[in-house]
Structure of Carotene biosynthesis protein:
Amino acid sequence: MTDGSPGGTSTAAGLDALRERAPDTRREAEALLDRLVRENRFTIAVVFPLVGAVALVGSAEGWVPEPFAFHPWFVLFGVIVMRSPLVVGVLPTVDRRALGWIGVLTAYTYLIESVGVATGWPYGEFAYTVDLGPMLAGVPVALPVFFIPLVMNAYLLCLLLLGPRADSVWVRLATVIPVVVAMDVVLDPGAVSLGFWDFGGGAFYGVPLSNYAGWVLSAVVAVVTLDRAFAAVGVRERLRDCEFMLDDMVSFVILWGGINLWFGNLLPAAVAAAFGVGLLRADRFDTRLFTQWRGS
């Protein structure tokens, strides 16, 4: 129903057209999201982490004025955009069982971080020193957005590189756990250099070695949980067919590799570069990502 005016009629027509284009089924919605990510791969996987690295370093160095320096909603928005290829890639494999186990992993994320903030176990004494948005019991509410994709990326990369050898749970544990820890070797020194959180000093670029022992525990929990959440065959088929499913890891390499380079954290930067090599071998840090940019 409209008010009879030309403006009201055109608005109604526009809403009708929008409703007609909106997906009617889950499959149609997934196809739409696939297309959106695929058409914007370079912007999501390269431009966003480059801009993010400059903004975060600028905030740490005092180049970005208040209230924009480390603005939590800007940070969270950028993270969500960079996570979108992973989320959209995994979405067709998500069912009720997967949602339940992801809920378990989310609960674990809050629990172990709350224990860590309160007691220093298992990661070592640390405190958040930058506002990362709303807090719950001393832990950022958005914590699962930071943690779960990190372990999921490691899990998927290992499935892709291992191929049939990943059928063994012991092989998965033996490979994914060190990859998760290696990702934190990149993440934590960069975050400490930015001032995101503070361990009060540590042997590895301001990070205590106990932190990595804690990440071994969390990696074991994550691998066991993800194994129960997803059907291995379905995940591998989707991973094979979805070229952008690991683009979030491309963003990780660019963002945290660049930040570590800026602050002179050479070993973490080298580990980030090694992940880039792994993505190249897996044909994910690929020419298709950059063809879009050259053609734009």
Remarks:
- Residues 42-295 form one domain.
- The radius of gyration is 21 Å.
